[in-house]
Amino acid sequence: MSGIGSALVPQAAGIRAEGFEPPGPADFDLPPIGGDFGTFHAFGQEFVLGITKPMLQLVLSAVLIFGFFYLASRKRAMVPGKLQFVGEEAYGFVRNSLGRDIIGTHDFQRFVPYLFTLFTFILLNNLFASIPFIQFPTFSRSGMVYGLALMSWVIYNVVGMKKHGVGGYFKLQSVPAGITGPILVLLVPLEFMSNIIVRPVTLALRLFANMFAGHLLLILFALGGEYLIVEMSLAYAPVGILAWVLFLAVAFLEILIQFLQAYVFVLLNAMYIQGALADEH
Amino acid sequence: MQTLIPTLVVRAAEGEEAEHKLNPLLPHLAEVALSLVVFGILFFLVRKFVVPAFEATYAERTTAIEGGLAAAETKQAEADAKLAELEKQLADARHEAARIREEAREQGAQIIAEMREQAQTEATRITEHGKAQIEAERQQAVTSLRAEVGALATTLAGRIVGESLEDDDRSARVVDRFLADLEAIESTGAGSSSGNGAV
């Protein structure tokens, strides 16, 4: 969040007056590839029709992920080679530390494909932001994230309802264990809000905002540094170079954040599923 | 968030160029659908091909390790059983050997006793035989001596008497009478003198 805040500061400080156009949300609206196919209206806004770069990235990520893990898992050697080893490590990481350790040995196996796909899918799309020539985080497009968050919400709720029945599930999610009396009047709506309504929103915003802010920050350092060096007088050049150095530092920080956000998204998915499957507390 | 949303909304509302002033929080519907579809396809492929392969590899590896351990355990058990069997056989063999030795000792003692008895019997038999032979020879010697002593005595007496005692009937009678007398004397005398007289 602070990333977005600081990204917007230059605008507030009025640097625009000197001719520098600061990066903003508009930088995430990439033009369609191969021409305009018209527009459509939704949410009181006008959207462009056509295939954009993040859409291609989404498809590319799916192809790369399946291609890599298909090759890595195909040989099924007892003593794995390098490719199989990397694939097994990634798979085992999600399977054991995100699946088994959180959901529990009894139920986790049927969720492993979902968690594993989700983790690799988000991770690679996040990493696209730092891969040269792609350099755009797919999930800085809110629509992409909303799709995944919606899916997560449906999955953990349906899993819970299947196990406990609709009434039993809402009771499980809304009534805290071991609490009786009038305090429930206060707690039940709160629990319902936090467990059923707020979760998909926070899930989506956390991923989207981190990717959005990180990319904005990088654009700001890159363009700002360039402007300071190229457009301003020579005295500002060292500041511009400093900005580029900071760009590098932030770029490495971003890689960490890209991994963490993928991890957190899947971790929370696993925890929500575990909570929905839990027996009476 | 509180600063972001109003700012963005304000910027979107400025309406300079609608295309560049979109609120980033409002989703492009095609992107929602696309992310779900692409994720769905990827999920299907991963569940169909990748996860079963990895799980099978894990399972095979587990089986291989457990199988190896089980095989080692079986081998160990077999080796233990074999060792116990061999030890038992060894003990049996020792026992058998001791038994055979004991039996042999007994048999040897028995054989020695038998041989000794046999030898004793043989010795007795030989002694008996020798005694009988000696007796027979003595008897023969006595008989022939009697005849010779008769003839000798007759001849001697004839020479002493100076008359011919060629008349066999007479001389035979004389000799018989003499010997009968002699025997009568011997039988009345001590047994030892009879023995001496035989030699």
In short:
The complex is a heterodimer of chains A (about 280) and B (about 200). With about 280 residues, chain A is mainly alpha-helical. Chain A has 7 helices and 2 strands.
Overview of the molecule:
The complex is a heterodimer of chains A (281) and B (199). Chain A is an all-alpha fold and 281 residues long. Chain A has one domain. Chain A has seven helices and two strands. Chain A has helices at residues 2-13, 53-74, 82-103, 112-127, 142-174, 183-231, 237-277; strands at 39-42, 45-48. In chain A, strand 1 and strand 2 (45-48) form a beta hairpin. In chain A, helix 2 (53-74) crosses helix 3 (82-103). The longest helix of chain A has 49 residues, at 183-231. Chain A starts with a helix and ends with a helix. In chain B, helix 2 (29-161) crosses helix 3 (168-188). Chain B contains four helices and no strands. Chain B has one domain. By secondary structure, chain B is mainly α.
Topology readout:
The complex is a heterodimer of chains A (281) and B (199).
Chain A: H1 2-13, E1 39-42, E2 45-48, H2 53-74, H3 82-103, H4 112-127, H5 142-174, H6 183-231, H7 237-277
Antiparallel strand pairs in A: 1-2
Chain B: H1 4-14, H2 29-161, H3 168-188, H4 191-198
Helix pairs in contact in B: 2-3
* Low-confidence region ranges of chain B: 1-20, 192-199
Work out the largest interface and the residue count of each chain. A-B, 60 and 45 residues
> In sequence order, what are the helices and strands of chain A, one letter per element?
HEEHHHHHH
How far is the first residue's CA from the last residue's CA of chain A? Answer: 35 Å
Oligomer: heterodimer
General form of chain B:
rod-shaped
Estimate nothing, just give the exact number of structural domains of chain B: 1
Give the percentage of residues in beta strands of chain A: under 5%
* Total separate domains of chain A: 1
Strand proportion of chain B, as a percent range, falls in under 5%
Average pLDDT of chain A works out at 87
The number of distinct helices of chain A, counting runs of at least 4 residues, comes to: 7
